[in-house]
Amino acid sequence: MNELIIGDDFIKILLVLVLGSAALIITQRSLVSLFSIYAAQSAILAAVALALFTREGTASLLFMAVLTVASKVIIIPFFLRRLLAVMPIKRDLEFHYLTPIGSIILSTGLFFVVYQAFSALSPALEVSRLFILGAVIGVSLALMGMMVIMSRRKVITKIIGYLSMENGVLLFSMFIAEMPFIIEVLIIIDLLMIIVLSAVLAFGIDSSVEAFHKRLNQLGLDFED
Amino acid sequence: MAEYLLYAVLNIGFITAISPLLLGAIKKVKALSQGRVGPPLLQGYYNLAKLLKKEIIYSQNTSFIMRLAPYLNIGFLLAAAAMVPVVFLPSAEGAPGNVILFLYLLVSAKFFMALAGLDAGSTFGGMGSSREMSLSAIIEPVTITSAAALAFVLKTTDIPEMFAAVLGASLAQYPTLILIGMSLFIVLIVETARIPVDNPETHLELTMIHEAMLLEQTGPKLALMELSYGVKQTVLMAILINIIFPWGLAAEATLPAIAVSMLSFGLKALALAAVIGVFESLMAKIRLFRLPSFFMLALFFSFVTIVFELLA
Fold first, then answer.
1. Do A133 and B296 touch (CB under 8 A)?
2. Nearest to A158 by CA among A70, A211, A94
3. HSE-CB of A142 using CA atoms within 13 angstroms
4. Is any Cβ of chain B less than 8 angstroms from the Cβ of A144?
5. What three-state secondary structure class fits B121?
6. Mean pLDDT, residues A78-84 taken together
7. In the predicted model, is pLDDT for residue B236 greater than 80?
8. In A146-197, where do the E strands start and end?
9. Which pLDDT does position A159 carry in this prediction?
10. What is the pLDDT of residue B92?
11. pLDDT of residue A219
12. B129 CB burial (10 A radius; 0-12, 13-18, 19+)
């Protein structure tokens, strides 16, 4: 029993850290920091999955943790950093509709609305408070990611928005929806594709075919003409 | 009563004594992280000793406010220092430590400092006071929300009781204290006018906030103002330290316990001073109009803490 309580507290600490990282993603302007925060957030999610695995013993949670570490902590941030090395911009200073202050205030509101919605639903869901907490934070994280997509102008930051949104969905699925593992794998593959495609788009949209090929060569994505 | 008297004298004395050391430590860490040698650790004490020996000169335009402000400023801050235990936890009865009163004391000190800045009628003083008050208007709700979140999580508005609550528990029992810690750190940076809000080491028109208000003060009065700045910083650091890392804080007033308490606080405060020094070296000063986004982060953390507590 005692062990279980310690497990719960540990998960709560991790959830608190997820929220902290979400707030930093909204306000951060330096791209290098954004990627590092995203990697840290994904690492925390992997730790949540591991903690839940030790508690529930479901094997898919363990796979999820491994997959998250491999894809979102190592591969995606590595790819994004390589992208950044050849990109002319290092900071994202342009915003649509909302400045970081507006986004932070709005996300406070979003968090509260999600909390209200789930408090009303919680008797019907019949799960423990910890799981409701995880679900609220998961949905809020997804909505905050959506806000990043909406409020940033640069494609590269929008990608971080997508990724953070997916992290929210993952968190939600860990606590409430119990998504099949195969779906999670498919989502990760989708994410990788999104990143490759948006990187190509972000680069190629303003260049001629020849210049575009040259840029792709810089990225290490060589093409046979 | 005797115990409380002992507590007040020791606590205020210790906080006052260690303040210049912490200021020196932050400067030293900053200098080292920027590849400079920096001033000696005890430079704060030398500066105070030097200022105390100098004569006081006032502008002809000043009123009694200018003469009174340093005493009021240090008085309010020492009273606030009595509310934040660092040597040992006083027994609950008769020890004032209400967090709302504490915030009012800090604001009163700030008010008189701003008034003194305006008093001489110099452009810099007025500018500093105006900037300080504009920032205060934005940071005050954030400070109050952080204090409210703290009171909400620990179920008390009494600062010694808050410390007692976390001393008897682990961080795992109050996970939201991590978020409150981040809010308190931002409040600490803003309230002590550090980078990215203000640069305490320059006297440039563009960056000055806190220093501009002190430009007309001289000699021992300036020493008092400098000391009160140090005390304010130590008190705010003490809250952050004793909420997040309460280990070593004595629960009763015995000599070995007090010695351990002072030593552990000194070490923890030096560690926090090093963190602040590195943080300052990593950051650039933010434009004045972009500062609210920095404060809003603290507000978000405090608000989220309250919702988190409601759910958990």
1. no
2. A94
3. 13
4. no
5. coil
6. 82
7. yes
8. none
9. 84
10. 66
11. 61
12. buried
- For B226-257, the DSSP string reads HHHHHHHHHHHHHHHHHHH--TT-BSS--HHH
Query: Among the ranges A8-12, A55-59, B123-127, which has the highest mean pLDDT value?
Result: B123-127
Tokens found for residue B295:
């404060």
CA proximity to B210, closest of B288, B127, B296, B285: B127
Following DSSP, what letter does each residue of B17-33 receive, concatenated?
A: HHHHHHHHHHHHHHHHH
Q: Which pLDDT score is estimated for A2?
A: 43
> Which of A16, A104, A132 faces B178 most closely, judged by CB atoms?
A16
pLDDT in tens, B103-135: 999 999 999 999 999 998 888 899 999 999 998
Q: Please give the pLDDT value at position A131.
A: 87
Q: Which of A154, A187, A148 is nearest to A171 (CA)?
A: A187
pLDDT for A208: 62
Q: Quick check: A108 and B304 CB within 8 A?
A: yes
Q: How far is CA B246 from CA B88, B143, B162, B235, in A?
A: 11, 21, 10, 14
Q: Is A66 an interface residue toward B (CB < 8 Å)? A: no
Contact B308 A16 (CB under 8 A): yes
> Is the pLDDT confidence value at A5 over 60?
no
Nearest alpha-carbon partner for B189 in B92, B86, B129, B278: B278
Question: Tell me: the pLDDT tens digits for A164-191?
Answer: 999 999 999 888 877 777 777 888 888 8
Q: Flag whether residue B76 sits within 8 Å of chain A, measured between CB atoms.
A: no
B179–A100 C-beta distance less than 8 A: no
Cβ distance B311 to A111 less than 8 Å, yes or no, reads no
Residue appearing with tokens 């130590």: B234
DSSP category for residue B39: S
Whether cis (ω within 30° of 0) applies to the bond prior to B292 is no
Q: Report the residue from A10, A104, A136 with minimal CB separation from B311.
A: A136
Per-residue tokens: B175: 């996970």
Task: Report the 3 state secondary structure along A129-157.
Answer: HHHHHHHHHHHHHHHHHHHHHHHECCHHH
- Return d(Cα B181, Cα B70) in angstroms, integer: 31
A86-119 burial by CB neighbour count: b if 16+ within 10 A, else e? ebeeeebeebeebbbbbbbbbbbebbeebbeebe
User: Would you call B303 and A20 a contact, using CB atoms and an 8 Å cutoff?
Assistant: no
> Which residues of chain B have a CB within 8 Å of the CB of A15?
175, 308
Answer yes or no: is pLDDT of A4 > 50: no
